[in-house]
Design brief:
TIM Barrel, Alpha-Beta Plaits, two-stranded antiparallel ribbon, 11 helices, globular, CutC_activ_rSAM, oxidoreductase activity, iron-sulfur, 4 iron, 4 sulfur cluster binding
Length: 316
């Protein structure tokens, strides 16, 4: 049994997912990420600390949260028309006490992040054991970046395996191999992101070169891992046919000892844009239309079919 004292910071546990691995799955989202993708749909996952999200349309500026917050994060200010307005002082770190969330009469506030032990997470996971068994589903760990809290994640996956649950992780791959290799024996499927083939373009898009990521992908294949490579498709940034071809030929070359389950092309979407406003952040691609038409996706799909690899375009 895993010791109960060790914790990880989790920001969401989502049940009944059908996208991140086979069958019906429970997704466990870890807080904290080393990269800064311009299109990130989970901005609440990036920072490792607790964060308060506020739905402005629900808040009536009652000020109750300012009275109960022990860190004085919640404050009031006078607007141009002499009204009192609530705001969150983002320079002060949230302690995660959740008092504001509990006391808000309009349910406008949500504290992102909860420190949980392996037994506490497993208690949630095991509630849906019948769904995993009937659908060949399981558990997927994501984030943020799961290797950011890697030792806890490995222990959680090991506990899942002991209970006969299929395991998967979503990873950007940006970690030391010494950490990544710990996942090999407890992970049935790696959902591995390749965001751009060119190292410098990769740095421009996410804040770091991809050398470490590509090295980890190669070593995972060499270790015999089963991998679905995921390529986010961002119009004008990484979707040129030259870039797609170079990436896929590279994957074809290195997928020797492991099993390449699929190469999933994930077209850009704006599903997480509202979260930026709730965190008082500006969405980096706010004023740029990067959505794809069905015809554009069909042309990309036709082009990729020539490589005789399990390539598919996946729209969420």
């Amino acid at each position: 049994m895993i010791p109960a004292k060790k914790t990880a910071r989790i920001f969401n546990i989502q049940k009944y997912s059908i996208y991140d691995g086979d069958g019906i799955r429970t997704l466990v989202f870890f807080k904290g990420c080393p990269l800064r993708c311009k299109w990130c749909s989970n901005p609440e996952s990036v920072e490792s600390g607790f964060q308060v999200m506020k739905q402005q349309n629900l808040c009536d500026d009652c000020g109750i949260c300012t009275e109960v917050c022990p860190k004085n994060i919640h404050k009031m200010r006078t607007t141009m028309d002499d009204k009192q307005e609530h705001y969150i002082d983002r320079k002060i770190s949230c302690s995660g006490c959740r008092i504001c969330e509990e006391k808000c009469p309009k349910n406008a506030l949500t504290v992102m992040g909860q420190d949980m032990t392996v037994p506490e997470v497993m208690e949630v996971i095991l509630q849906d054991m019948l769904f995993y068994m009937s659908s060949n589903g399981g558990v997927t760990l994501g984030g943020g970046e799961v290797t950011y809290q890697g030792d806890f994640a490995v222990e959680l996956l090991a506990e899942c395996k002991e209970n006969g649950i299929h395991t998967a992780i979503e990873t950007c791959g940006y970690t030391k191999w010494e950490m990544m290799k710990k996942f090999v024996d407890v992970t049935d499927l790696f959902l591995f992101d390749v965001k751009h083939f060119d190292p410098e373009k990769h740095r421009e898009l996410v804040g770091a070169r991809n050398d470490r990521i590509m090295a980890n992908l190669e070593q995972l294949f060499q270790a015999g891992a089963t991998i679905s490579v995921r390529m986010p498709l961002i119009k004008g940034l990484n979707d040129s046919l030259e870039t797609l071809k170079a990436t896929i030929l590279y994957i074809k070359e290195i997928q020797t000892n492991g099993q390449l389950k699929s190469i999933d092309i994930l077209p850009y979407h704006k599903l997480g844009v509202a979260k930026y406003e709730q965190l008082d952040q500006t969405y980096p691609l706010k004023d740029i239309d990067m959505s794809y038409t069905d015809d554009e996706l069909e042309k990309i799909r036709d082009y990729l079919s020539q490589f005789e690899l399990p390539v598919r375009v996946v729209k969420h």
